[in-house]
Amino acid sequence: MSGWSQRLAALARAEWQHLIQIQRSDRIWQMPVAAALATGLPLLVGAWFGHIEYGLVSSLGGLVFVHMPATAMQHRMVTLMACAFAMTACYATGVLCHFAPGWAIPALAFLAAVVTMLVRLYAMGPPGSLFFVMAAAIGAYSPVEVLQLPHAVGLLFLGAFLAVLIGFAYSLYALRLQAPQPVAELPPPSFDFVIFDSVVIGAFVGLSLALAQVLGLSRPYWVPVTCLAVIQGVSLRAVWVRQLHRVLGTAAGLLLSWAVLSMPLGPWSVALVLMLLSFVVEISVVRHYGFAVMFITPMTILLADAAHLGEIAPGPLVQARFADTALGCGVALLGAICLHNRRFRAVVGRPMRRLIPPRLLR
Questions:
Q1: What is the span of the domain harbouring residue 138?
Q2: pLDDT tens digits, residue range 139-168?
Q3: pLDDT tens column, 296-325
Q4: Do residues 208 and 227 touch, judged by C-beta distance below 8 A?
Q5: Domain-located, residue 234
Q6: Element (H or E) spanning 24, and its range?
Q7: Prediction pTM value
Q8: Does 8 fall in a domain?
Q9: Is residue 90 part of a domain?
């Protein structure tokens, strides 16, 4: 028993060290400020005109800013513009699924697989495909009428376009303070990393949404978003640590969310709170993911539900968000076990390889 207790104590210490480990960051403080402006300015405009719901849609497009690499200006702008197009396309696909609910699950699984393929093919760093899929998931469950579809997609594109402009202005200043990093040579694409992993990730993202709908969750779109955020780890160990960060950070973040939602927030205060949360997230996410999740949780809740704050009680909303997170993390852990299991890869990957021309396989 003493040997078991010593091993358990050593395991607990190792897990605790992983949880509290803080990474170094070379981000300058102006980057979180620019990210907060990309997210918050559309909300301020929406509050000015008395349509906070329009500003919230544009704020989703503002998330494009966080995909900007630390490279030379020409590479930054090409990347941002490509991400702006991809974010708009994903949101439009999600909104279209609102009119055909039966297609939401396969469409979201397909988008998660394709966007993950592209992100891995071009070696894009975090947050990877997360925000693209989140935009599609929120769009799929947004109460948009047919004639409002171009309007909603246009609002998101305007937010993404504003993020590109802010990225350009920020880069003019930032490149004077920090030399640009060289554009890394893209590694040769492999079947396992680019295709197989992406298809499996997309399948489990779709499975998580299907389970959320079967269980009748009030906001099923958070489940696939959580699943994708966790399953993207490069190893089973990384997935496990990220899951712990996600669950514990969300639990703490829900307390903060309850406090925020309990305040009498108006359109202007919602915009300012979202900008503050975005600033804290971007300054901390590269240092400690779990700490950043504490602020990501209320930020995402406000992005999706700020237009209906007076209609929703904070308690049920917080409880539903925790249930979504727990279900998404559970499916993500199951998917990660499959992804990192050699037998599963051999059994499932063999027929998948037959569908691809041999000249394209590596």
A1: 29-178+188-360
A2: 888 888 888 889 999 999 999 999 999 999
A3: 878 877 777 766 665 667 777 778 888 888
A4: yes
A5: yes
A6: none
A7: 0.86
A8: no
A9: yes
